[in-house]
Structure formats: structure tokens, C-alpha cells
Amino acid sequence: MKDKAFFSMMMAVLLLLQSCGSVTDESVSADSECKYYNVCIILDGTDRLSQCNSVPRIGVDEIVKFARTISEKGKGALYVGYVDKNCDNNSVAMFEWSQDRPSGIGKKPDYMPVKEYEKQKRFSDSIADAYRSSIETAVMNSRTEITSIHELAYSDFVAQQSRGSDVNGAINQAIRLLRASDGGFEKSYIVLVSDGADNVGKPLNTLPESIELLIVNANNSKHQYGSMVSKELVTLTQAFNYIFK
Description:
Blueprint: H1 2-19, E1 35-43, H2 60-73, E2 74-82, E3 93-97, H3 114-153, H4 156-159, H5 167-180, E4 188-193, E5 211-216, E6 229-233, H6 236-243
Parallel strand pairs: 1-2, 1-4, 4-5, 5-6
Antiparallel strand pairs: 2-3
Helix pairs in contact: 1-3, 2-3
């Protein structure tokens, strides 16, 4: 929170300086085109003990990479959920990034004294450092939540549940989450790391046209979602490259 408050204060001072004739690089200004990402990753560890359906076990670092990339490339939200016997009220991890990237400093105008330019550059660099620190703090905080969900997803408690694959419920929850943060997003993504074999039977909500369903599994022939699936993938890295291409 201190890093965020400090960064906000620095941005306010920068805006004041800009109105008084400071130098900014328009090519990297906060007004330049910003990319938005809205992603929900669903982990399915229900077959972890049997290992019969080629569902990859995802690492925490692989998921955190999504959060870091969202903040480095633009703005957006990342949700992480999991499959068990009843996903309606399952906890989720969330990462959200909405801060504008600070403007860089442009070339020194001929009229500006060197000392004044160097002063503004030092200040601009300090804002950039504060921005990067704010990203790091947000990503590290999200890692704690993601780790908690990851442990639940791959726990023995989940893996030993009888008829414990409420995949439809997990997709329904993901749709609700993505709709809650869909402002500014042309496309949102559900990344389902699962064999897609639902054995609970809840009604599946209609998938909005703005949401793509990606399934990650080395044996995708078993899933039951047909044309709902935009892309069948084998690894989470392939899903990452598809979303952040």
C-alpha cells in the first residue's frame, strides 16, 4: 500500500511539472495505446492421484507469469480457480492491474538548460522505479493467493472426492468473474487445465461471444465441450503465447 501511495503521489507531481513545461516522450506516454487482458485459469487436480487423463500439473510460477505479463504489457485482471465437486462458492485468487504507465522523458530541447533537463530526468527515472516497484509488490501479493488456490486444487482432499469433477460449475464461475471485469476488454479467456470430463452435471451457462474457452490437456479427445472450445492446447505455455501474442 505504501508503494502504491508513493507512486500515486509521484504521478501527481509529474502531471504538475508537465503543465509547467517539462519534457515528456510522447512515444511512451500513458495516452498511447494500452492493451487489456482478462483471463481466468482453472486448475483441475481431480485426477491427480490416478494420472489417467494426461492433465498437466501447473506450477505456481507458470501462473504468476500471467500476472506479471499483464502488468508489464498493459492492464487487466487474472483470476485463478479450481475444480472440485461443487465449484459454485469456491475461493479464487485475483490479480488486477489498472495503473497507467508513466511517461518517459524526451530529448532535451535546445532552449532548456542542461541542469534543468538532468533534474527532470532524475525525477522521471524515480517515477519509473516507483512504477516497477508497484508492479513487483502487486505480483508478489498475488503469488500468495495463487499459491493458496494451487494447494487446494492439487490437494488429496480434492483428488479423493467421489464424483468430484464439477467442470461445468468451474466454467460458470469463470464466466461470472470475467464478466465482472470485462470493461475495456475486446476478448476474455478461460484457460481450462483439465480433461473436461464433468461428472456432476450442472447446466452449463452460455459462453458469451467475447469469451474464448481454451483447454489445456495432452488428451483433448475426451472433453465434452465441442465447438465451445476455441483452441486445444497441450501446455500452459502454449496458452500463454496464444493470449499474449
